[in-house]
Write a structure and sequence with these properties.
Blueprint (H helix, E strand, L loop, with lengths): L1 H29 L6 H6 L7 E3 L2 E2 L1 H8 L17 E11 L4 E16 L5 E14 L5 E3 L4 E9 L4 E9 L16 H4 L10 H7 L6 E11 L8 E9 L2 E2 L6 H6 L3 E2 L5 E10 L2 E10 L2 E12 L2 E12 L2 E15 L2 E10 L6 E12 L4 E11 L2 E11 L1
Antiparallel strand pairs: 1-2, 3-4, 3-21, 4-5, 5-6, 5-7, 7-8, 8-9, 9-10, 10-13, 11-12, 13-14, 14-15, 15-16, 16-17, 17-18, 18-19, 19-20, 20-21
């Protein structure tokens, strides 16, 4: 009880400080028409491209599909070519009596077209990256890259991507409103072969995970929007992690690694119309595989996602199921629920609920996200207070 009170006290101490910093930054950034990088550049508000940050609306999806460029004439303003995302996290594992409050992320984000060429780039660099380990200690992985890649449009229907990125395109896990990942796209299959724990970890695979990769994409049946169409993608995936380790611990936990021996091939096919889509993906390697069927349905303020998948490794098959629904009645408020289930894990069913509040979505954004996960063996409450500018 005392540890939980300390956790709550920390949240109350930190919250006014973060709000004060946000207010001070808002006055500084108004003079530069400031909103995170792309919005500053084109003098837009956050909700021009987001239903609710970080989830994209149709204009946001089109913007990404066009190589981070607006369609039609647009005046570009001079600004620094990056945004910053600062996050304070709280975590309570009720069954284990584990309570943590810590600054878990300082992230630099940048991207855009490369000159007048057909190429574009995107990067997310975790200057600070802390997470809770299984034993309750904090693991320091500061300096790792979340994304670092270049995309080249070979033609209007074909593009080539190389670097480190998430393999799954139909659902981009980095734009989720909740704090945890749906099971069907987030569960891993273990790394194969011999080696250290670090090497085996880098050979593991999850659809939402980031890996050094080369990807070739073809789009057919284009619709009214640049993000519409039938997408077929093949990716060659390598073991590794791009990073510039900042601390001594990060040099062990997030060292720069790259192995030229591929860890598998990832295939994806999906059809997207508006913000709804249906598709499938498959990862194959010698002795292991995983795949899923995914559906996303949007109608007005409602978003629903359904996933059914499997993972096979070491002769054992694990079936996975995810059903998720989100309601976004306002650009500053959302709520969601999710049901996850897997077959080979005891107590493999969990129920997740989350609430997001964001304000003011103009020249900066302050975000509060709270999530609660209910499972037979452990209940977990997560909270994140973020400042994005």
């Amino acid at each position: 009880m005392n540890e939980r009170r300390v956790f709550v006290d920390r949240i109350f101490i930190i919250t006014p400080f973060v709000i004060l910093v946000a207010i001070m930054l808002s006055f500084q950034l108004q003079e530069a028409h400031g909103v995170p990088y792309f919005a500053r550049k084109y003098d837009l508000n956050c909700n021009s491209c987001h239903i609710m940050p970080p989830a994209l609306n149709q204009q946001g999806e089109n913007f990404v599909a066009n190589g981070y460029k607006l369609v039609g004439p647009a005046e570009e303003k001079a600004t620094w070519p990056f945004a910053l995302w600062l996050t304070q996290r709280g975590e309570v594992q009720h069954s284990n009596d584990l309570n943590k409050a810590f600054p878990n992320k300082v992230e630099l984000i940048s991207g855009g077209p490369i000159g007048d060429s057909r190429a574009s780039y995107f990067l997310e660099w975790r200057i600070l990256s802390l997470q809770v380990s299984s034993d309750g200690s904090l693991k320091d992985r500061s300096g790792r890259f979340e994304d670092l890649f270049i995309t080249y449009d070979v033609s209007n229907s074909v593009n080539l991507k190389a670097g480190q990125f998430r393999l799954l395109n139909q659902i981009d896990d980095s734009r989720k409103l909740g704090l945890s990942t749906p099971l069907v796209i987030g569960a891993k299959i273990s790394g194969s072969g011999a080696g250290s724990a670090r090497e085996l970890s880098l050979r593991a695979f999850a659809p939402n995970g980031r890996s050094p990769s080369v990807s070739l994409q073809h789009r057919s049946l284009p619709g009214a929007h640049a993000a519409n169409g039938w997408f077929n993608i093949v990716s060659l995936v390598f073991p590794g992690e791009f990073s510039i380790p900042i601390t001594d611990e990060a040099r062990d936990e997030a060292s720069f690694e790259f192995k030229s021996d591929p860890k598998g091939v990832f295939l994806e096919s999906f059809y997207r119309r508006g913000l709804s889509s249906v598709g499938a993906h498959l990862f194959v390697d010698d002795g292991r595989s995983m795949g899923s069927l995914l559906g996303v349905y949007n109608r007005g303020y409602w978003f629903s996602r359904l996933g059914l998948g499997y993972g096979r490794f070491g002769g054992e098959t694990n079936m996975r199921f995810t059903l998720e629904s989100e309601f976004i009645p306002y650009d500053f408020l959302s709520g969601g629920v999710r049901l996850d289930h897997q077959t080979v894990v005891d107590n493999g069913t969990s129920f997740v609920s989350n609430v997001n509040l964001q304000w003011p979505l103009t020249v900066w954004t302050l975000r509060l996200a709270v999530e609660h996960r209910v499972r037979t063996d452990n209940h977990v409450t997560l909270g994140e207070l973020s400042l994005v500018f």
